[in-house]
Amino acid sequence: MQWHGDRVGKSSDVKKVDSNHAEIVKALRSYPDVSVFSTATLGKGIPDLVVGINGVTVLVEVKVGRKKLNALQASWHAAWTGTPVVVMRTVDEVHALVQNIRVARRVFGESPFRAEDVSE
């Protein structure tokens, strides 16, 4: 038996994580207003990460290159009635997600607009 985050199981039960998983997690955690919980070893189509960004929760599926969702993942994502799951492949997408959530929070949340966020 091995310890896998929040459960104990046989190593054969553990879902393999994508090769860029650690890099994506590290990039997300580089932001002070971001928290990350990995659910990657749960399998069953459940997204790989639960990410909190400035008060917003985002479910993230990590994929490498052009890899597509498997059947379980596609089914889980289709059945999910919360906000759509974000498929993330690169660190650049991490930065774009964090910046977009920050802007959305300033526009729609309690945070005030900042002049530098307004396009002319």
Describe this structure in words.
Residues 1-12 have low confidence and may be disordered. The protein contains three helices and six strands; from the N terminus they run ββαβββαβα. The protein has helices at residues 21-29, 71-79, 91-108; strands at 2-4, 7-9, 34-38, 49-53, 56-62, 86-88. It is α+β, with helices and mostly antiparallel strands. The longest helix is centred in the last third of the chain and has 18 residues, at 91-108. The protein has one domain (2-108): Trna Endonuclease, Chain: A, domain 1 (3-Layer(aba) Sandwich), CATH 3.40.1350.10. A four-stranded mixed sheet has the order 3-4-5-6, with helices on one face. Strands 1-2 form a two-stranded antiparallel ribbon.
Layout of secondary structure:
Blueprint: E1 2-4, E2 7-9, H1 21-29, E3 34-38, E4 49-53, E5 56-62, H2 71-79, E6 86-88, H3 91-108
Parallel strand pairs: 5-6
Antiparallel strand pairs: 1-2, 3-4, 4-5
Helix pairs in contact: 1-3
- Secondary-structure element order, N to C: EEHEEEHEH
Major sheet strand order: 3-4-5-6
CATH class: Alpha Beta
Return the domain count: 1
The CATH architecture is 3-Layer(aba) Sandwich
Distance between the termini: 59 Å
- Total strand count, please? 6
Q: What fold name goes in the CATH topology slot? A: Trna Endonuclease, Chain: A, domain 1
Low confidence ranges = 1-12
Largest sheet: 4 strands, mixed
Spatial shape:
globular
Task: Please report which band the strand proportion falls in: under 5%, 5-15%, 15-25%, 25-35%, 35-45% or over 45%.
Answer: 15-25%
> Helical percent range?
25-40%
| Average of the residue pLDDT scores | 83
Task: Please identify the oligomeric state.
Answer: single chain
Secondary structure class reads alpha+beta
How many helices? 3
Gyration radius, in Å: 16 Å
